[in-house]
Amino acid sequence: MKKLLCTLLALSMLLGPAEGPSADPAPAVSTPAQPEDGSASFTDSVGRTVEVPAEITSVAVSGPLAQMVIFALCPDKLVGIADEWDASAEQYLATEYYNLPLLGQLYGGKGELNLETLLGSGAQVVIDVGEPKDTIVEDLDALQEQTGIPFVHVSATIETMGDAYRKLGELLGMEEEAAVIADYCDEIYNNTVSMMEAIGDNKANILYCLGDQGLNVIAQNSYHAEVIDLMTNNLAVVDSPSSKGTGNEVDMEQLMLWNPDVILFAPDSVYASVGDDPLWQSLTAIQNGSYYEAPMGPYNWMGFPPSVQRYLGMLWMAKLLYPDAADYDLQAEVTEYFDLFYHCALTGEQYEALMANSIGKQ
After folding, report:
1. Separation CA 182–CA 48 (nearest Å)
2. Which residues have a Cβ under 8 Å from the Cβ of 281 and sit 6 or more positions away?
3. Model confidence band, residue 115 (pLDDT cutoffs 50, 70, 90)
4. Residue-level pLDDT at 25
5. How far is the C-alpha of 344 from the C-alpha of 339, rounded, in Å?
6. Which residue, among 258, 240, 257, has the nearest Cα to 249 in the 3D structure?
7. Which of 327, 326, 328, 318 has its CA nearest to residue 264?
8. pTM of the entire structure?
9. Taking a C-beta distance cutoff of 8 angstroms, is the pair 182, 172 a contact?
10. C-beta of residue 127 within 8 angstroms of C-beta of residue 80
């Protein structure tokens, strides 16, 4: 972050002062915008009161997690994307969205935030969504001061995504549109919780394996394991659960000790080869054919990054692991999701391709 701010300071000296909203104190969130300067106050999820334009028409995002969340609500407001869409996205997204400028990411990822592109993008606000970093307040305050662009954080977990959308609706003046998505998230989550309460102690014993050798696991109690922990008996118990999407590295001996009944493999892992591998065949799940590949398109449905597509993962996992309890048509549910979150009319052929390795062995 220090390197980022130094670069930004140098750019600001070259480009001159950036235009941005007034820094004067503003009223509470519920107070209407100030008519004299067209601004309003917004209090974000980490308690920062930020002055933003009363009418926001251009938005930048801090990372791919925010990108997915905001895309569902207001794709036409995005001035760029934080991370390139997966190649599979081209068949689902309209061309104007697929080809948006690349801005980079605030935290980690494949590249730092491109400050020059951001300053020239016309963004009226930069939105960060997800789990707040320990330094989030200092980071966003510093970036906002240097750029003159408001930066806001909206916290979101799998349980609170509905509330996150309502807060975004407040920020963007899209309360009604956000309420539709928020209610959807609440319904899927609450239905899943109720189903799992009914299942009780009969949860499936699983592992989620990833990496080019399949020897990384998403450990119990990690941020990336929210859905796995909710819906299964996640056998991957380790001393220090990794907060990274790459999970915790283990070895085959440890997998044999856990010996899950079901294994879910990440889309870029070893699903295709384990059936013929004598070492993997020593595991009960592989012997019984109870292993599956997480659907991928345009993102990994299991949540890498851990964004709103995890609701697709919840729908899929419930139907896969508890078909008697998951009393719904999965294709209809997935089609509804793609319409609501990707603005895409999913075809039957596309659905079958998404499910090719995710429901049963061919």
Report:
1. 23
2. 274, 275, 287
3. confident
4. 35
5. 5
6. 240
7. 318
8. 0.86
9. no
10. no
